[in-house]
Write a structure and sequence with these properties.
The chain is an alpha/beta fold. It has helices at residues 28-40, 51-61, 77-86, 105-108, 113-119, 130-142; strands spanning 20-24, 44-48, 65-69, 95-99, 122-125. Helix 2 runs parallel beside helix 3.
């Protein structure tokens, strides 16, 4: 029979395991509000309050997607992002950047916008629209 080809049946990957999202943001009100939104949409959410904590959690848990605030004390989201891209296990994890600057982030950090686009799945300007956030997360997960 053809069930031994090692592939799980399609139905298995639908909702059998919630996708893990790591949310790194120093704004506790925002991250708790968005975590509630994401959990109600069926995701498993872990929160980190700064870049170092986020890196540690990402290494331990290897999330399916990372939401990363670029404006943080302790370690900026950009520095955190650069470190994540050095870690083999995290290289392919999609990252969505939350930012007050929107699309110009690459120029601000000296990334060509093409580099930024290749390495960051999306930029969302704060305040984040919940439905846009869910849509972007869905797209990023689907393309990985």
């Amino acid at each position: 029979s053809n069930t031994k080809n090692g592939k799980r049946p399609e139905t298995m990957c639908a909702q059998d395991e919630s996708k893990k999202i790591l949310f790194i943001d120093d704004d506790d009100d925002l991250s708790s509000a968005l975590s509630v939104l994401l959990e109600s949409a069926g995701y498993a959410v872990r929160r980190a309050a700064n870049g170092d904590e986020g890196l540690r959690m990402a290494r331990q848990e290897r999330p399916d997607l990372i939401l990363l605030d670029f404006m943080m004390p302790v370690k900026s989201g950009f520095a955190t992002f650069q470190e994540m891209r050095q870690i083999e296990a995290l290289r392919s994890v999609p990252i969505i950047a939350l930012t007050s600057f929107g699309q110009n982030i690459g120029e601000i950090y000296g990334l060509s916008s093409q580099d930024a686009r290749q390495q960051i799945q999306g930029f969302l300007e704060k305040p984040v629209e919940p439905n846009v956030l869910l849509e972007r997360i869905g797209e990023a997960l689907a393309s990985h």
